[in-house]
Amino acid sequence: MMSETITLGKALNHGLRRALESDPKVVIMGEDVGKLGGVFRITDGLQKDFGEDRVIDTPLAESGIIGTAVGLAIRGYRPVCEIQFDGFVFPAFDQIVTQVAKMHYRSLGNIKVPMVIRIPYGGGIGAVEHHSESPEAYFAHTPGLKVVTCASPSDAYVMIQQAIASDDPVIFFEPKRRYWEKGPVELDAPLSGAYPLHASRLIRPGTHATVLAYGPMVKTALDAATAAAEDGRELEVIDLRTLSPLDLAPVFESVRRTGRCVVVHEAPGNVGLGAEIAARVTEECFYSLEAPVLRVSGYDIPYPAARVEEEYLPDLDRVLDAVDRTFGW
Amino acid sequence: MAKGTSEPGADVPAGGFVQLLTPDGERVDSVTTDDGVTYSVDFTDDEYRELYRDLVTVRRLDAEATALQRQGELGIWASLLGQEAAQVGSGRALRPQDMAFPTYREHGVLYCRGIDPIMPFGLFRGVDQGGWDPNEFKFHTYTIVIGSQTLHATGYAMGITMDGKTGTPDGEAVIAYFGDGATSQGDVNEAFVWAGVFHAPMVFFCQNNQYAISEPLERQTRIPLYRRAAGYGFPGVRVDGNDVLATYAVTRAALDHARNGQGPTLIEAYTYRMGAHTSSDDPTRYRIASEVEAWQAKDPILRLRAFLTKQQLADDTYFAEVDDSAAKVALSLRERVLAMPDPQPVSMFDNAYPHGSPEVDVQRQQFAAYQASFEGSAH
Ligand SMILES: Cc1ncc(C[n+]2csc(CCOP(=O)(O)OP(=O)(O)O)c2C)c(N)n1
């Protein structure tokens, strides 16, 4: 096995490359994905090696990118669309929720739109407005879309290939502030043996409380668990990985053991993923719970100016604080 | 497109454009386009000199911002280098009653609106969302989502008509700024439809700086952008965007056309972005040095300076004084940017809603209490 230590961004790049190699129907499309290699360089070098017909610099129009990708998918291609930043997906929102999500249903299953919409999301990089948002709940709320997010280089590498290979339309959220985090990746492992795309994963066992996180918050949750361990508290951390459908069976199992549950996400709390998860965990684990399921999230305000984003974003202290509160019940 | 414009050559795009000042600093008296519109300017000597001062000051402020960004004092900067003439020419053509809707690069127009040049720095430093009051200066907030503002501008212009503030020489008009890339967006095309159908008193001012980040103009269009207007039922005109006299003349005429109740105009200011798209960009990946050099020869400031010199409207003493005063403005800007304090974290809860929100109020209190809990600790 060839295991390499690479960044999450590079892992995505390798994953896209392998998808382009293994299926001639895969095409990448988006703004600046060609010569520039994308503003985060995730598609770096791909146009050079696969040509302008497979790595397509599109006009600057998100509705156009997604709408034409639908047509390409109907025609037998597997488009992988890049939306440059989270806040710029909204011009395409109409196409995604009214068309991408419903094609299969509307056509009685006769039409598939096997496309992937890659969206770098979340804050923590000191950007101006529209460059730091967490819009996952809008998509998870729309039946017909699969919504996933990766948190480690190895997951990034595998999940992007799985998403492309899947016949479902997949919204693939990339935690942009983790693009530069490194980890080991098995570059030639066969996809067939990989951990499933639509499954959450227990990534740190513990006994005192369960912490759920996804995307950029997974690292924060792990850091909190490390800190808690120093104080003798063992936190169990689960990386949700899939946001729609949610894979909560392992979560229920965990919460039944620990009796305490904290959900962490960057997006505002109001009507966020955490609300859904808290409701489901409460329904399933009511008699095991020692405390209500608590949420740690962004506040219910527009994403603030960069100089205060560290106060806005859930950090290790806020996670530990919530864990403390579950013990205070 | 135009009688009297220079023949297409190395300097001029196919189809020509309105030019009143050549790259060598030669004045063209007037230009009449195929539409039968004649463009000219009638500046006093002082006005010529002041235009030069504007161009130099705006460029100097931009250079200071670029330096501040490199020194880590700004998160990002969108430079206007090379586009000074398009911005100053159009910005000076605005009358006080006109309303402007910018993108994120219109620092030169902002300057012409009389707004303190420090204003956009809060946004780029990450301490606020841009500090000016759009109502006071008739210059809207910067808009980062590409093309959105063109619809707002159109709606605002429709409001002018509904208010009966059009149809006279003193009427109001609106100008919307956007780039060549933006012309691909649905919003911009919808704005064209609306403005045409409702005969809105507005000017669409497209700065075609040849690139949308890395993508060249050919990735957005197969025809010259100004010709799109015909499909929406209003006039389009292309102007040499590096010629401050021509951009002024064309914009003033289009604004007057609008304020007189004659409907919208699309202006394509043909120019070039000399620097990177923003400070996060690496233009060497997608464009060649010789292209940049060719555009250097069309520099908006050098040509006005050549004109002023030839006409003996200004001498080295004047130019030195302008440089000096621009440097002073830039220096004071630098000092003030460095002194810009970080916002109080709790201020992030301000202005989410005009009437507040009980939930946000609770979160504000919880946040303040949480912050206070760290006080005195080693956090
Ligand atoms: C809807 C949307 N998509 C993508 C972006 C990212 N982006 C910022 S500027 C830019 C290029 C804009 O090019 P153009 O309209 O020509 O204006 P210029 O920056 O050249 O002045 C892009 C793609 C954005 N801000 N908004």
**Poorly predicted sequence stretches spanning 5 or more consecutive residues of chain B:** 1-9
In spatial order, strands of the major sheet of chain A run 3-2-4-5-7-6-12
User: Beta-strand level of the residues of chain B, as a percent range?
Assistant: 5-15%
Instruction: Report the mean per-residue pLDDT of chain A as an integer.
Output: 97
- Counted by DSSP, the helix tally of chain A is 12
**How large is the radius of gyration of chain B?**
22 Å
Shape descriptor of chain B reads globular
Summarize the amount of helix of chain A as a percent range: 25-40%
For the termini of chain A, the CA-CA separation is 48 Å
Topology-level CATH name of the largest domain in chain B: Rossmann fold
Tell me, what is the CATH class of the largest domain in chain B?
Alpha Beta
Written as H for each helix and E for each strand, in order along the chain, the element string of chain B is EEEHHEHHHHEHEEEHEHEHHHH
Number of domains of chain B: 2
Beta-strand content bin of chain A: 15-25%
CATH architecture of the largest domain in chain B: 3-Layer(aba) Sandwich
- N/C terminus separation of chain B: 67 Å
Please provide a written account of the structure.
The complex is a heterodimer of chains A (329) and B (379). Chain A contains 12 helices and 14 strands. Chain A is an alpha/beta fold and 329 residues long. In chain A, helix 8 crosses helix 12. The mean pLDDT of chain A is 97. In chain B, the strands form 3 sheets. Chain B has a 5-stranded parallel sheet, with helices on both faces. Chain B has a 3-stranded antiparallel sheet with strand order 1-2-3. Chain B has a two-stranded antiparallel ribbon with strand order 7-8. Chain B is globular. In chain B, 47% of the residues are buried. The N terminus of chain B is likely disordered. Chains A and B meet through helix 11 and helix 12 of A and helix 4 and helix 13 of B. Bound molecules: thiamine diphosphate. Thiamine diphosphate sits at the interface of chains B and A. Chain B: This is Pyruvate dehydrogenase E1 component alpha subunit.
